[in-house]
Amino acid sequence: TRKVILDVDTGTDDAVAIMLAALHPDLDLTAVTTVNGNVPLSATTANTLRVLDAIGRPDIPVHPGLAHPIARRGFPGQTHFERDSDRDMHGSALPLPAPVTAARDESAVEFLLHTLRDATERVTLVPVGPLSNIATVLAADPGVREAVDEIVIMGGAHAYGNVTPSAEFNIWADPEAAAMVLSAGFPRLTLVPLDATHQALVTRPDCAKLAGLGTAAGRAAADLITRRIDAYSAGHGVHAPDSAPVHDAVCVAYLVRPEVITTRPVRVEVETSGALTVGRTVMDVRPNATGEPNASVAFGARAEVLTELLLETFSGPAAR
Ligand code: BDR
Ligand code: CA
Known about the structure:
Strand content: 15-25%
Largest sheet: 9 strands, mixed
Oligomer: single chain
Bound molecules: beta-D-ribofuranose, calcium ion
Order of helices and strands: EHEHEHEHEHHEHEHHEHEEEH
GO biological process, one term: purine nucleoside catabolic process
Structural class: alpha/beta
Number of helices: 11
Radius of gyration: 18 Å
Distance between the termini: 21 Å
GO molecular function, one term: uridine nucleosidase activity
Pfam family, one: IU_nuc_hydro
Domain Inosine/uridine-preferring nucleoside hydrolase: 4-304
GO cellular component, one term: cytosol
């Protein structure tokens, strides 16, 4: 099995990603670190604990990380473009029972530093929120990147953003952190931007099938994704009606079904200034691109692969 650490700002799609990583037999979710993002750190942490309790995995440690971006007093200025993107569908508490398990006392940064420094087996790191924790760890010890066999990031956008026309929320929320992570020299970096996740849409009939599995994970996934579909159908979405992307789950699906996305090597840099473009991932997709690629970027994704994997993984005995 592949050792995986998820870094999350739980939210509804982070929750599906956590369940997929925790329940898939080929993955060993050794820990989850939390960060400020969709909702404040206290809420992303409590939501993460709710999810792990709901699927009977309170043994997976949760380490709270940064409560704010690394270089700003908060998110980039309230641009006249800003809208809630995916955030307002998360609410502060997920539709799951209150957590009974407590987060660990050790911070995400301390946990990641010693875990990666002492790693005997390389770890797959999957950040699906703002990159504040990952950037801080790199600032403390850039060498830890060698303990990461692959970093798979949900973030960025080439065609159009969600929080602004230019920017996708995870990158926009902490652009300096994203710039540091993308230029840190990870041996293998896969970036899953909106261009891909907007193609892997989950529908209401899919949710009915998930609910029909009769498992805690199936029910939770159905509730969480239905909440997303309701929000997108209320005019937030740019997608086919009665469907929604589950961005973060695509990153975990890729670990066990790499064919869920199609990628190409691209040089990606992050705009950290400019009122209209702050947080934009600038991708050199020119035929005569000059920059040295620093990421495998997903431009395509297959909804049927994601949905099939969710149904398969959430129906198993582990899904209770
Ligand atoms: C990203 O932002 C959040 O809304 C989701 O959890 C996802 O990680 C999509 O832009
Ligand atoms: Ca997220």
